[in-house]
Amino acid sequence: MDIAAIFLTLAVLILVGAYLYAPFLRGYGQRVTPEERELSALLAERERVLSSLQELDFDFNLGKIPEGEYPDQRMSLLQKGGDILRKIDALSAEHPREAVKTGRKVTDEHLEAMISKRRAERKRKFDGFCPKCGKPVLVDDRFCPSCGKALK
Questions:
Q1: CB 60 within 8 A of CB 70
Q2: What residues are paired with 136 via a beta bridge?
Q3: Cα 149 to Cα 44, 106, 139, 143, distances in angstroms
Q4: 137 within domain boundaries
Q5: Same domain membership, residue 93 and residue 38
Q6: Tens-of-pLDDT digits for all 152 residues of the chain?
Q7: Distance CA 92, CA 40 (A)
Q8: Do residue 39 and residue 88 come from a single domain?
Q9: Roughly what angle, to the nearest 10 degrees, separates helices 34-62 and 70-94?
């Protein structure tokens, strides 16, 4: 084999290796903050407690758990769940998350403007009432959406 072919193959392998190793050097990917990690753990724990509570109720209804033990176990799980919810609320209050991932916040004024625009569009399309059932119908309706009577 020719020495130039060996060097060319070696150069290509080095370039491919550098390209594949670059994300590790730059640290691409999502960085998870300790608060997000803690919130995720609390949410998983909440789901586990809820699942345990459902299983406990199901087993009690089947008669697998004696009546003397059931209230204590249920109260214990409810207290754990309450503690977890308090921790989640405290963590959420300390570090509020954005309402929208894109970075823009949805304000009340923006929502009110969207609602009023939608109501205005609906009023323009309003045509009257169904002669049979009295429900409102729109301009484009050929049949009443409630009773099905032909309108035109």
A1: yes
A2: 129
A3: 52, 41, 15, 5
A4: yes
A5: yes
A6: 699 999 999 999 999 999 998 878 776 666 778 888 898 999 999 999 999 999 999 999 999 999 999 999 999 999 999 999 999 888 887 766 533 333 456 678 888 888 888 887 776 677 788 888 988 888 878 888 889 988 87
A7: 12
A8: yes
A9: 160
Domain boundary among 80, 97, 114: 97
pTM of full prediction above 0.70: no
Write out the H or E segment, with its range, that includes residue 52: helix 34-62
Contacts of 84 (CB under 8 A, 6+ apart): 42, 45, 46, 49
Amino acid at 44: A
Residue type, 100: V
Q: Which domain holds residue 134?
A: 102-152
